[in-house]
Amino acid sequence: MWRRSVSAGHTCFGLKGIWGFRAVHTCDAPALPAGRITALQAMDLWKRHFEERGVTEPDQSSHYIIAHLLGATTVESLEQRKLTELLSLEKIEQVWKLCTRRLSRMPVQYVIEEWDFRDLTLKMRPPVFIPRPETEELVELVLTELKMKPDTRVGADGQHTILEVGCGSGAISLSLLKSLPQLKAIALDQSQDAVNLTIENMLRLGLQDRLQIYHLDVIKDAQTLLSLCSPVSVLVSNPPYLFSEDMASLEPEVFRFEDHSALDGGKDGLKVIKQILNLAPQLLLNYGRVYLEVDPRHPQLIRPWLKANVEELHYVETRHDITGRPRFCILQKEKSNKDRELNLGLRN
Ligand code: GLN
Questions:
Q1: How far away, in angstroms, is 71 Cα from ligand 1 center?
Q2: Which DSSP state fits 293?
Q3: Residue 130 within any structural domain of the chain
Q4: For atom 5 of ligand 1, which residue has the closest CA?
Q5: What is the total count of domains within the chain?
Q6: Distance 226 CA to ligand 1 centre (A)
Q7: Residue 165 sits in which domain range?
Q8: By CB neighbour count within 10 A (0-12 exposed, 13-18 middle, 19+ buried), where does 332 fall?
Q9: Fewest CB within 10 angstroms: 8, 25, 90, 162, which?
Q10: What are the residue ranges of helices labelled H in the chain?
């Protein structure tokens, strides 16, 4: 059974930097039990403590941490016996150590140092952005389109190559590569921590033959990016897209522990998105497509901006996420109007 994150939103007010990065407040933790206890008792004790201390998702937090320490991903997949037998003193100490980290509001994904993304388990490490469930939907969207249109937009070798801007832990690229054995990918990130984590995840999954990873900033290193990373048939990104003014209301888990440069998209959240769209015609093969995850306010802003600013790229459609919000933009490179008409079957 896979783990599911429910804490990717940014609805709670987050106090900034009180505890600092990766800080752990041991004094807030309950005392170690006098004797040995079972996993179920430990779960209940920590759930209640998380609740009292206002830690979000108290139930899931204690479940995921303790299941992880017992060698499983979820409590449901553990044998009943493992839940009811007494834990060793060493295990109890480990439970206390990891749960105390969660008490400092460290996201559970960083506490257990791994998380599931579609059918993959990926290593997670602060401050690299933790992939959210919406991004699994983005991958499904790209997969469906690539499976439906295998013929057009392929490179000279007859294969699709995708480029991912802002790869974080590598979730999108690695997941696409895992699902499509013919696919090749290039992934880049402006953060060295992200690049290192993507490399680590790539090696663990044995996908190194089909993925190139670069430490590049899509804004500062545009020329290098163009020369190293083109042409590709698909450009995919979950870029930083939060409006800067919304950063202050992020949950403490997000605000204190995750890389702000992977979240903050500038005043209108479009800083990186605009740069990706500006470069897309030079990066893509003709009829190549861009797939973006964006803020629900973005599709209606991107459409007119694109028309006024980027030739050879046209807005195909907006797709909604599972909660019904406009979340994904699909765009396509078409060299001229004539090409577009041909593609739409308006000419012969
Ligand atoms: N969905 C993320 C959040 O709300 C933001 C993702 C992003 O900026 N790419 O925290």
A1: 30
A2: E
A3: yes
A4: 263
A5: 2
A6: 26
A7: 120-344
A8: buried
A9: 90
A10: 39-52, 58-69, 80-84, 89-103, 108-111, 133-148, 171-179, 192-205, 222-228, 252-257, 271-283, 299-309, 337-343
- The closest-lying atom of ligand 1 relative to the alpha carbon of residue 166 is 9
CA of residue 237 to ligand 1 center, whole Å: 12
Q: State the DSSP H helix or E strand holding residue 287, giving kind and residue range, or none if neither.
A: strand 284-293
Which of the listed residues 104, 131, 163 is the one where a domain comes to its end?
Answer: 104
Helices 171-179, 192-205: inter-axial angle, 10-degree rounding: 20
Shared domain check, 299 and 265: yes
Residue 308 forms part of a structural domain:
yes
pLDDT in 10s for each residue of the chain, 348 residues:
567 754 544 332 222 222 233 344 445 789 999 899 999 999 999 999 999 999 999 999 999 999 999 999 999 999 999 999 999 999 999 999 999 999 999 999 999 999 999 999 999 999 999 999 999 999 999 999 998 865 656 666 678 999 999 999 999 999 999 999 999 999 999 999 999 999 999 999 999 999 999 999 999 999 999 999 999 999 999 999 999 999 999 999 999 999 999 999 999 999 999 999 999 999 999 999 999 999 999 999 999 999 999 999 999 999 999 999 999 999 999 987 555 556 565 544
The verdict on 66 and 195 lying in the same domain is no
Ligand 1 centroid, distance to 9 Cα (angstroms): 8
Nearest-atom number in ligand 1 for the CA of 132 is 1
Residue 299 domain-assigned (yes or no): yes
Ligand 1 binding pocket, CB closer than 6 Å: 8-10, 132, 238-242, 254, 263
> Are residues 216 and 124 part of one domain?
yes
Instruction: With respect to residue 54, please indicate whether it lies within any of the assigned structural domains.
Output: yes
Distance 264 CA to ligand 1 centre (A): 8
- Best of 5, 136, 138, 238 to mutate for ligand 1, by most ligand atoms within 8 A of CB? 238
- Same domain, yes or no, for 133 and 60? no
Q: Is 196 exposed, middle or buried (0-12, 13-18, 19+ CB in 10 A)?
A: middle
Question: What is the distance between the alpha carbons of residues 207 and 201, in angstroms, rounded to a whole number?
Answer: 9
Q: Which atom of ligand 1 is nearest to the CA of 240?
A: 8
pTM recorded for the entire structure: 0.90
